[in-house]
Amino acid sequence: MKLQKYLAILLALALLMCLLPATALAEGDDEPAEEPVETEEPGEEPEDPEEPEDPEEPEGPEEPEEPEEPEEPEEPATDPPAPAEEPEEEEESAPVINGEDQVCYPMEGETVYNNGGTVYNNGALVYNNGGLVYQNGGTVYNNGGTVYANGGTVYNNGGTVYRNDALVYTFDDDVQDSHIYGSFRVEFEADYSAFAEIEGLSADGYLNQDEELVITPLEGWILTDAEADAGVLTENEDGSWTLSEADGNLTLRLRFRPEAPVFDLEEGTYAEEQILEITAPAGAEIYYTTDGSKPDEDNGQLYEEPLSLTEGVIVTAVALAEGAEPSELSTASYAFVRISAPALASGKEGEDPPKAAAFKLENSGEVDARIESVELEGKNADCFKLNTGKAGTVKAGKTDEKTWTIQPVKDLKKGTYSATAVFTLAGGETVEVKISFKVK
Description:
38 strands, 35% strand, six-stranded parallel sheet, 4 domains, mainly beta, 5 helices, Immunoglobulin-like, rod-shaped, 13% helix
């Protein structure tokens, strides 16, 4: 019995020994796994070159660049709103490369490079455009294609821009027909609205290349010179100027001057007070002098009302306006002369007539007075004799009592004789002087 018990114990121990390796092996599959990791570390060092092969597999994930395929949703471009925005949201941080035959709908703030395809609803930037851009509200650089419905800006345009409402720039003078439908901003160096009427600009100040800008001076104004940064300026026979063939944004510099002031009183010699009215173009002020000197704002008087003239003066006037050149000077001389009848002594019938008496002509002004002619009129005109009826001059500030004289003729019967001496002054005015002679 003892032997049997002993054998049973041995058998149990043997079984236990048999089971231990199996359990140890099962547990070893977990624990030693970490130990191999340590052993594998050295092994991985040589396998480093193989790891690049794994990166090639990550290239597989790059195939998920198919997110770019989401650009395919752009195909639903037929309905630009939704599909267009989703791809763009994914590519907000990266520019869009739009190739030939491709279509894209960039969002505001995005950039499209090397466009050889078509861009719709552009609110972004498009570089190197060789394709089409529709509904442009953004900016297009280096355009060699076509831009429709432009509300943005186009730089370096070598293509075509249709329905342009914004700016189009070009810096290539050799490009032909690049702006057939383009327009250019026209600036003015100053406000010229008081001097001229300008036609041909759009409401916001743009000029189409194939149109003309016409500058027509207002009445009384003269356009003396015009300069522009671009285009061709031509002076017309009627005094207007035309700007054509504009090929870039430009600034116009215009020079105006008013016409010379106009005097309504003809210069000459007068016997009575005269009223002188001076006029100038609207918008100009008149300065004048009465001593013959050159007037300006510092020398002369501002014309405010008609001038009353009673003595000889030289009136010189100029028209001035801010932003314009001075007008040419207008000058007129006005002389005044007072003529008195001669005092003829009475005569006796049968005796020689009295000696000739002179007319007295006084000129107290600063201008020589000019007498054009003298002649006698009246029923007794033949009873008197003038020494001369020719023209003559009374010097400024002088009195003449020698040039024109009158004498009764011989053999007059008893009675009173009268006539009128008519002096015609330079300027057309006439002065009548009554003459009377009595024979006792």
